[in-house]
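thought: fold this chain, then report.
action: predict
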Amino acid sequence: MMISEKMQKALNAQMNRELFSWYLYLSMSAWLKDKNFDGMANWMAKQAGEEMAHARKFYDFIFEVRGKAELDAMEKPQAEWKSVMDVFQDAFKHEQYITKNIHDLVHQARKEKDLPTESFLGWFVDEQVEEESSVDAIINKLELMKDFKGGLYMMDKELGAREG
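observation:
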């Protein structure tokens, strides 16, 4: 099976968005590390690794359906934030952006009756529910403890335990 040129272009765009996600989360990790939030930096670095794996899934799939993967130049990601809360709120907004793009791809696959691509994208639909939920949970915890001075220390320790 060979995908349409339009679908190939859309999948390449998403692969490049996933690569930018890796770059953005690595930048967030660097900012957190610079502020001595090593646990949160670890969590964000693990998240960056997940995004690279997502990009690789798109890359591999494009070749599986006899398409051509095309890597775009990446813009420089944001490097400064006002607070830990801002970092995670930006991560949440970014995940919502990625979710919208995945949903748009599913709609395009359905329109083209491209069942292999629709099936492939199903994993990403489920993954985005998890991605948004995990960042939202962190934001909710940060909000709950905003008046508790030890809260950031506790969150840093908790998020530092992330292994995968």
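thought: worth noting. The chain has a mean pLDDT of 95.
final: tokens above.
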